[in-house]
Amino acid sequence: VQLQASGGGPVQAGGSLRLSCAASGRAFSGYLMGWFRQAPGKEREPVAAIGWSSGIAALSNSVEGRFTISRDKAKNTMYLQMNSLKSEDTAVYYCAADRSPGGSWLTGATWGRPDRYDYWGQGTEVTVSS
To answer: pLDDT tens, 28-49?
Structure first.
């Protein structure tokens, strides 16, 4: 399995970016796909996740209402639409895949645990200037 994140770059506060995560190597039916970010000097934090088959999504409180996660099965690609960007959104964004999420990743709020993901992309940097 390979994950390739792209779409990052510099943007002004209040602007928008769309990140993409191209997945390859197998079919992703049943997978849980997630976005994480890591700012300089900080721990990696969860941003959003989506069930590949169901399309059910979860967002962290810090981005809810501004970010949207989606996936295109035909293109084997996951997206993170980021609107109303703030300087605190500056980070390297990583996509990840969990091959055996089970049924409680949403209700148990475990989607945000990095250690549950089996595969990681290389990251794409987002810099928001105020």
So the answer is: 999 999 999 999 999 999 999 9
